[in-house]
Amino acid sequence: MDEIELKKIETKISKEIQNTIQAINEYKEQAKPITPENAIGRVSRMDAINNKSIVEAALRKSEEKLKKLKIVEKKISNKDFGLCIRCKTQIPIERLMIIPESTKCVNCA
After folding, report:
1. What distance in Å separates the CA atoms of residue 22 and residue 32, rounded to the nearest whole number?
2. Which end of the chain is more exposed for a tag (fewer CB within 10 A), N or C?
3. CB atoms near residue 65 (< 10 Å)
4. Domains of the chain: total
5. Containing domain of residue 65, as a range?
6. 10-residue block means of pLDDT along the chain (109 residues)?
7. What pTM was estimated for this model as a whole?
8. CA–CA dist 10, 21 (Å, integer)
């Protein structure tokens, strides 16, 4: 992988980290407890509780993605960056641009 490709990936990772942090903050805001004093009906309250659980799942997924992105960000300067952890072949740059936290090639994933 050449320097230009590494720079592209590094920029992509930085943007993904920023976007993921922003999403996490939004999910945390949406996942706040539902106060009982809100004048909503029983069915609406059940919908709100259901939506809260969906938002909490999205929050966990985003936090996991952020953790993986930060690990990849630290490893980008390693000589084996971009190699599949299973078969040791080069992960295509296109895959890394779409999913920068990828550690496996398409065949091994």
Report:
1. 16
2. C
3. 19
4. 1
5. 3-78
6. 86 94 94 69 75 92 95 88 91 90 89
7. 0.78
8. 17
